Amino acid sequence: MRAVRLSGTAPELAVRKLLHSGGYRFRVQRRDLPGTPDIVLPRYKTAIFVHGCFWHRHENCSKATTPKTRISFWKKKFDRNIQRDRSNASALSAAGWFVLTVWECEIREPEDLLARLSKLLK
Ligand SMILES: [Zn+2]
Predict the structure, then answer these.
(1) How far away, in angstroms, is 54 Cα from ligand 1 center?
(2) Residues with Cβ < 8 Å from 11, sequence gap 6 or more?
(3) What separation in Å is there between the alpha carbon of 56 and the centre of ligand 1?
(4) What integer is the mean pLDDT of 50-74?
(5) From the CA of 103, how far away is ligand 1's center (Å)?
């Protein structure tokens, strides 16, 4: 369940700013694509999802904690998110898109993140 957002979340804005500083041209929130990718780089045929570590279960990340109560409720919720992420990614790749995930925690090291992205965007 996503509310309508006009401007994007803070992590999304940070990634956009970073890409912009790297000279990349992009579009945001392409609703006609599976999962409405947060950022789309048409020239690279690349869709980027900026994921919160907690909700999207970033593996081995300290931010992806599991609440101690209502464990099965959370597990179901997390499983659903993971499933949805997977099916969006496979629908996009089937349509010829390259799919990248940027994790919220990566934004803390913007230079490393930009280096990673520019390596992938070719
Ligand atoms: Zn993380």
Answers:
(1) 8
(2) 50, 52, 102, 104, 107
(3) 9
(4) 95
(5) 5
Tell how far CA 13 is from the center of its chain. 12
Residue of 9 and 24 predicted with greater confidence: 24
Q: How far is the CA of 25 from the centre of ligand 1 (A)?
A: 25
Whole-number CA gyration radius for the chain: 15
CA of 66 to the centre of ligand 1 (A): 13
Dig out the tokens for 52 from the structure. Answer: 């919160």
The token pair at 116 is: 């990673």
Quote the CA–CA distance of 91 and 45 in Å, as a whole number. Answer: 14
Instruction: Name the 3-class secondary structure at 17.
Output: helix
| 5 has pLDDT over 70 | no
Q: Which of 6-20, 84-98, 106-120 is the least confident region?
A: 6-20
**Reported pTM:** 0.89
Task: Give the model confidence (pLDDT) of 34-57 as tens digits.
Answer: 999 999 999 999 999 999 999 999
